Amino acid sequence: MNENKSSNARSLLIGLAAGGAAGSILALLFAPKSGKELRRDIVLKKDKIINNTGRRVKKARKQVMEIYSNGMKKTEAILEETKSKLTSIRQSTGDAVNSGRELVKEAVKSGIEAYKYERKSHQH
After folding, report:
1. Do 117 and 110 contact (CB within 8 A), yes or no?
2. What is the mean pLDDT of the chain?
3. How far is CA 22 from CA 13, 15, 27, 37, 95, in A?
């Protein structure tokens, strides 16, 4: 029985050693690159990311400026249209006020004449 346990332990140690060795060999075979190569690739990737980001920022900035410019043009057009409409409304309102003022003047004048006429007719 003691021999059986010893055999099992030996088999376990051999299995662990073989597995560790196989894992180490596979890790070395599939290791991406040496430290120097890996650092170089990291720097290149970083530079690529920075360049791509810079281009995207420039593109976004250009789009924002186009949107801003279009917004300003539309705003200016709306302001001009609003000014034109306000001028037209002021003119129409002014014409209506002046017309109304003239009507009131004529009504007052007619009222005064009617009053004078009635006053004269009651005095005789």
Report:
1. no
2. 79
3. 14, 10, 9, 25, 101
For residue 33, what are the contacts with CB-CB under 8 A and spacing of at least 6?
Answer: 41
Average pLDDT over residues 27-51: 70
Q: Is the pTM of this model over 0.70?
A: no
| Integer Cα distance of 63 and 59 in angstroms | 6
Which amino acid is present at 110?
S
Complete DSSP assignment for 16-27 = HHHHHHHHHHHH
Distance of alpha carbon 69 from the chain centroid: 14
Average pLDDT (5-31) is 68
